[in-house]
Amino acid sequence: MVFVPYDRPVRAAIIGLGRIYDLNIRAYVGNPDVEVVALVDPSEERRAERQADWPAAATFASAAELAASGIEVDAVEALLPIPLHTDGVIELFGYGWHVNLQKPMCSNLAEAVQIIAAAKAHDRVLRVMENYLFYQPLHKLKEVAASGELGTIAGYHMKMVGSGSGGWHVPWSSFEWQLEQIKRGRGILVFDDGWHKLSTALWLFGSVTEVRAWIGTTSFGSGIDLDAPSMIAWEHANGVRGVWDITLAPDLYLRSDYYTNDERWEITGSKGFARVNRCTGRGIQQPSLEVYSDGEMRGHHALDDDWASSFRDSGRHWLTWLRTGEGPLLWSGDQAVDVLRFALAAYASSSAGGIGVCPGEVV
Ligand SMILES: NC(=O)c1ccc[n+]([C@@H]2O[C@H](COP(=O)([O-])OP(=O)(O)OC[C@H]3O[C@@H](n4cnc5c(N)ncnc54)[C@H](O)[C@@H]3O)[C@@H](O)[C@H]2O)c1
Questions:
Q1: CA of 75 to the centre of ligand 1 (A)
Q2: What is the pLDDT of residues 116-140, one digit of tens each?
Q3: How many CA atoms lie within 13 Å of 164's alpha carbon, on the beta-carbon side?
Q4: Mutation test of ligand 1: which of 14, 41, 46 has the most ligand atoms closer than 8 Å to its C-beta?
Q5: Whose CA is closest to atom 3 on ligand 1?
Q6: What is the edge-to-edge ordering of all strands in the sheet holding 289-293?
């Protein structure tokens, strides 16, 4: 498609006003590039609550009602439960709106093909937002790796501990659709959170040629089967190897303003290493980025390491893109399919006993 940037503020609607709305709107608040014209959610309570943020916006119980209202919309922020992504996004393109979709894009390749075909058919832009790529300590980590300061990059290690104590309130309704995803074999750790982690690997080191995985399950009853302990290892086309381990610590208290994820990222090079110590939660309270080389450890104390800022900057990037058409979308639809393939390769490997699987060959 030939995208023509908007020479006026983008008229936006927010579709889905649940938990993550609180962070997504940071890109919209006080942003002269956008005017929030509508809010959509079947929950009357949520509509009333969120209306206070945007008194001038109209509210609707469904996207169909908004489309029928005659209100002009250019682009939407789709904050829908994952099981609704495919049909929901196809519907949104049908109304002629560009879509900034939350991750994971969808759960399998057949759905991805349908979503991308719908964007093409309606000549609209699909972006699958990836806020971790806008988290300043990870940005700086990428810069350090590219600078040569660590020597030749050899390895990438991510660690994630899912804890069940602390953090913000997540309503049970936000978990209900996760149970549906679990039934489909798309767990909350490997697939939902994993979407971010695998994205960072592709963003830092490019395409992946082989994935090996060992995905476990811990059952808490009533269908709450969490996909850990799990280990995923891979090799990039440039030779860098990566590994991500996921551990559950249900009784571990983690101080966090958001979800209780204890996360770390570490890049090892031939003469040093660099490590991001935390992201969503406040696990290790040292500088969010530390760089070791030539016998010296340097701490980055002044980075914007509030996880919420990554939503602000990712959303602003999208709105600027709509005004200019310039730069990468982070992610485009096709790039999001690469993330999906990476995750699907991990599932295929694990179910075949940990054999190497090429993401480009998963069907
Ligand atoms: N980027 C991140 O780090 C991050 C973190 C959390 C969630 N998410 C993603 O954000 C999305 C939403 O997650 P959440 O935690 O806010 O879920 P949630 O359940 O809290 O909110 C979803 C909202 O969508 C509404 N909804 C349901 N059907 C709808 C429809 N047909 N039209 C409009 N609204 C509808 C629900 O009433 C609810 O208010 C998911 O895709 C999730 O994966 C991303």
A1: 17
A2: 999 999 999 999 999 999 999 999 9
A3: 8
A4: 41
A5: 131
A6: 208-215, 230-236, 241-253, 153-165, 261-269, 272-276, 289-293, 296-300
